[in-house]
Amino acid sequence: MRFDTIIRNGTVATASDTFVCDIGILDGKIASLSTGLGDAAEIIDATGLFVLPGGIDSHVHLDQPSGEGVVMADDFESGTRSAVIGGNSTVLTFCMQEKGQTLREALKEYHAKAEGKCYTDVAFHLVITDPTAEVLGQELPALVAAGYTSLKVFMTYEGLRLRDDQILDTLDAARRTGALVMVHCENEDAIRYLIGRHEDEGKFAPKYHATTRPIAAEREATHRALSLAEIVDVPIVIVHVSNREAMEEIRRARMRGQKIAGETCPQYLMLTAADLDQDALEGAKFVCSPPPRDTQSQDACWEGLEQDVFDLFSSDHCPFRYDDPQGKLNEKGKRSFRWIPNGIPGVATRLPILFSEGVMKGRISLNQFVAQTSTNHAKLYGLYPNKGTIAVGADADIALWDPARKVTITNDLLSHGSDYTPYEGLEVQGWPIRLLLRGKSVINDGLLADAKAGGQYVSRQTSSLVNARKIDTGKSGQAAEL
Ligand code: URP
Ligand code: ZN
Ligand code: ZN
Questions:
Q1: Rounded distance, CA 184 to CA 125, Å?
Q2: Which protein residue's CA is at the shortest distance from atom 2 of ligand 1?
Q3: Per-domain residue ranges for the chain?
Q4: Topology (CATH) of 55-368
Q5: Model pTM greater than 0.90?
Q6: How far, in Å, from the CA of 329 to the mean position of ligand 1?
Q7: What is the pLDDT of residue 478?
Q8: Order of all β-strands in the sheet with 3-8
Q9: Ligand 2 center–CA 239 separation, angstroms
């Protein structure tokens, strides 16, 4: 067989194995894993490099409405361009339902935003903000069957949060349709109360974003979300976990027998609340929710990755410009933390940070790195085995990592729309120097290849976690009812 491309002499790693072999690519797929593969139109020499599945970032916000006068810094073009710089071949972004809007209307908007613009492959999680009987009973079953197999609900943010009865209805609809629900766990009423108290005391600086969103507010909401999921008997994902107490809630729920996935993010390993406490309004650059905590919380999140309490390491890329009237320093944001848009950029830095701080420093294995940044995302969100692994028949989404390359992270390297990175000046060891998306080079020698954005929308199957519940309980899910 003659291949389009052969990757030679690399050290291949999957979520379970590390081995030396060559990879033959034909028509955008991995066609052979062997040695002595013969000839190809293109030979890539991967001597001294790790050959890994392309990163899958399953928590990315792009081109979302973000409040009056505030504009997100990345659209689908700049966000996915930044994603490939950081070694990602697929991103899962959010399709935000506006109140009163149907899910189909929202999807039409987001498909139009993404169409023809993406450097990575993309899929959408549905964000349910208006769980009417029509949305849950009519639209959701049809959309899950059509490949939109995950959704997110918020327990915080006025205008987005759902009440407990609405969460229960949504979880119930997810159980019936076989969708996987991601939950943002923070207690909005407690946060409102604390914001009121801070304002009464004249506390308006960015650092008070952290003190109005304490660990207790996250722990309580995490416990409540897990309890609601237990009552409905449905798997959920607890996203962006920032500290030990919320993490231990996940561990305990699993010990009770619940099917739960957990996610943490770079900001909870690398930043603390002290980053929000800086001169002038510099702290606004680090405002995200949940907020970064303290060094013990960082240690706990590392433990969660080491011990696989966290299945997913995602960026929660939610970028705003800093020095911009439509960004962090909008007129109201300059006056109070309450109006600083929540979120930080991170889609390009997620993988290099975990590779350098996790793999190179011996905290996690290379196989855990692959699982937590690619394979588990593919399995949990219905993309596996087409994506998330190096196997015959899978899409040739492949990242070549140079474990020796040292890079100092600077904003201009990241090619995103934001005017800053929270990780400016951080030195990392290990960098994705080449990236193939369905066999085509997107990144060459660390730089964007001279190619048009060739990313496609990908439809998804049922989550592995939803399937695991069905096998465990013998209960029928979507397959029987649709
Ligand atoms: O601050 C954050 N994380 N903003 C993004 C929205 C979310 O909650 O994921
Ligand atoms: Zn969230
Ligand atoms: Zn998010």
A1: 13
A2: 343
A3: 55-368
A4: TIM Barrel (3.20.20)
A5: yes
A6: 17
A7: 45
A8: 29-34, 22-26, 3-8, 40-45
A9: 7
